[in-house]
Each structure stands twice: as structure tokens, then as C-alpha cells.
Amino acid sequence: MFTRPLAGVASALYVTVLVGGLYFAVAGLAHGPAWRLTCFVVGLLALLVVERIDRGTVPGLVARALLIHAVAAADGSGLARILFLLVPFAVYLTLGRRAGSLTALAYGSVLVLWTLTRPTDREAVGDLVMFLVGLVLAVAMAAVAVTADAQRARAERLLDEVAALAAADERNRVARDIHDSLGHHLTAIAIQLEKATAYRTRDADVAARAVSDAHGSAREALAEVRRSVSALRADPLSLRTRLAALAARLRTASMSVTSAVSGEEGLGGAEVRDAVYRVAQEGLTNAVRHAGARRVTVTVHFDPDAPRAGGVEVVVADDGIGLPESLDRVSGFGLAGMRERVAALGGTLVLDGPPGRGTTLTARFPAAAEARVPAR
């Protein structure tokens, strides 16, 4: 179990302790050999790197804990002790409530035992009280973050259920419409054909009019079927609504996720709109898992005047770490599946991400999937 909504808090603490420790050293308020200051600075920079690249793994958790203890040991200002609060916080997010609570209890117990060796030291007692309050707040913040993740996951499941129910309800409505309207037209056709058969030898004009009426009813029935099939293919929710919900599910306090749709959605057709959503979904998922980004944007533009190969464009961009040089630009990060989906609709997919300068995923589709299919 892991979530990154409060990762910015840890980074802010590292920077604060780093600046404070350097100030103490420059002002001559901290004493000790130069190598201790060097270890202090290097340890905090390493913590910032771990905070940026780790995604809640146990090795990352161990690295955090070891680095925090090393920084505290090398610190000459005493400011680094606040970083101990981040250990139970990270344990809670990575391993769950029980492990996080036990870690907080262990740290609190060690400090209580240490304070008991100097019960009359007012500063030690004050530090104990403040540290215990900090432990409680750290565990509470982690619990809130985990709860928010659980609620976000539940909201995602509910949204999927709502979409499924909406689609089922629409299909039931269309089925009733088909039964009522098509049944009416078929009954009318049967009556007109029986009438034509009955008057075929007695009155040719009446028989001809009956056949003509039957043809008209058949054309109306065919039109009704086409309208019903078109309604069945329609999206239960608009692309704009689906993308906004997707962005809301992935947005955190430390990562902004926004979406924007411009132009007329109907231009793309149902297949293209679904492919656009899947590309955006995969791009956002990759950004959350791998990019270490603070900001991710999804923009979709429907342009009726664009060339046929670019009538619909979706761009997923982030300000993260870019793409590693070793990444397979053809199939890495799930690109193979995305390329197949886009190519099936006559579109193109481009991934660009210079190291350290973010990543941009761009997909372009024809104005409608049907535009690729020759008329028969």
C-alpha cells in the first residue's frame, strides 16, 4: 500500500533541514569536523533523490530510514531529528497501518526511555512531548492519505459501475423501442402483403397500393433499426466527462493532473473517442508510475479542418524526469498495445521525452474511423 499525495511534505522538510544545517555551520553554531557536514549535505541530497524516484518499494523505505539516521548522526545543528517522524509515515504508506503504528510506537518508546535517564532536563522533556505529538500527526496524515487513495479507488469503481448501468439502461430502452416500433412496422407489412395477395386477381390497383405501402413500412422499419443501432453505439458518458473523472482520480496534493477537450466530440466517432480515452489513460498511468512529475496535462482537440490523418489529437505531457535512454521507444511502457490501437484506426503515435525535460505522448487520428474504410 503506497500513495504519494504528501511526498512534497518530505521534500520540504529535507530542504528546510539542509538550509538550517548549512546556516548553523556558516554561523559557527555547529561544531564538528568538515566530513560530518559533507555527510550531512550528501545524505539530504540522496534523500531528495529517493523521494523523487521511489514509488513505495521496500528497498526505497529501507534507504529512507538508513539515510535519515545517517543524516541525524552527522548533523551538528540538531535539526535533523525532525526527520525521524518521516520513518513511521513512510512505513504506514508502504506496509500498512499496523506496521506504521508499530514503528511510531517503537520510536516513541526509545525516546521515552532516553528521557527517563534525565527526568529533570526540561529541554529533553519538552523535546519528548513535541516528538510524541509529531508522531501522532505523522500517523494521522498517513492514515488520511491512505483513506483518500481508497476513496479514490472506490470512486473509480463506482464511476465504472455507473457507466455500465447507464449503458445497460440505454440498451434496455433501445430494445423496448425496437420491439415496439419494429413490431408495429412488421405487423403493417404483413397486413399490406396479405391485402395485396387477396386483391391480386380482383383489383390490381389496390394490390399495387398495398405492396407500395408495405415497401414504405419496410423502409421506415429499416430507418428505425439504424437509429437504434446508432444509439447503442453512442457513449453513455462524454469524453470530456470521462477524462475529467480520470484526471480527478489520479490527482494528488503533490501532482496536478488536468484535462481539456476542445472542438466537437461527435467529429471523432465512438471508436476514435474510445481510443483517445485509452491513450490518455495509459499515458497518465505511465506518468504517475514512472515520470516523477509534479504536473501532468491531457489535451484533446477535435479539428474538422485538419488533414485527414490528424482530425483528432490527444497529447499527454508531464514535467517529470523524461525517458531513460534504455527505454524501447517501440514497446516500452505499454507502447506496443497503444500503437496497435491507434494504428487500427489509421492514426499515429509519437513519444518524446529527453532525459530531465518531461515526457510528451501524442496520438493523432482521422476525423472518423469510418473515413479509412472504402465505401462499398
TrEMBL record:
GO MF annotations in UniProt = 4 iron, 4 sulfur cluster binding; ATP binding; metal ion binding; phosphorelay sensor kinase activity; protein dimerization activity
Q: Locate the Histidine kinase domain: which residues? A: 276-369
Provide the reaction this enzyme catalyses: ATP + protein L-histidine = ADP + protein N-phospho-L-histidine
Q: Name one GO cellular component term.
A: cytoplasm
The record, for InterPro entries, names: HATPase_C_sf, HATPase_dom, His_kinase_dom, Sensor_HK_TwoCompSys, Sig_transdc_His_kin-like_C, Sig_transdc_His_kin_sub3_dim/P
- Transmembrane ranges, per UniProt, are 6-26, 33-50, 62-87, 99-116, 128-148
Q: Which Pfam families match?
A: HATPase_c (PF02518), HisKA_3 (PF07730)
Stored Gene3D superfamilies: 1.20.5.1930, Histidine kinase-like ATPase, C-terminal domain (3.30.565.10)
Name the enzyme's class: transferase
**Compartments reported by the entry:** Cytoplasm
Question: Which key words are in the record?
Answer: 4Fe-4S, ATP-binding, Cytoplasm, Iron, Iron-sulfur, Kinase, Membrane, Metal-binding, Nucleotide-binding, Phosphoprotein, Transferase, Transmembrane, Transmembrane helix, Two-component regulatory system
Needed co-factor(s): [4Fe-4S] cluster
Which EC numbers characterise this protein's activity in its record? 2.7.13.3
- What function does the entry list? Member of the two-component regulatory system NreB/NreC involved in the control of dissimilatory nitrate/nitrite reduction in response to oxygen. NreB functions as a direct oxygen sensor histidine kinase which is autophosphorylated, in the absence of oxygen, probably at the conserved histidine residue, and transfers its phosphate group probably to a conserved aspartate residue of NreC. NreB/NreC activates the expression of the nitrate (narGHJI) and nitrite (nir) reductase operons, as well as the putative nitrate transporter gene narT.
Instruction: List the protein's name.
Output: Oxygen sensor histidine kinase NreB
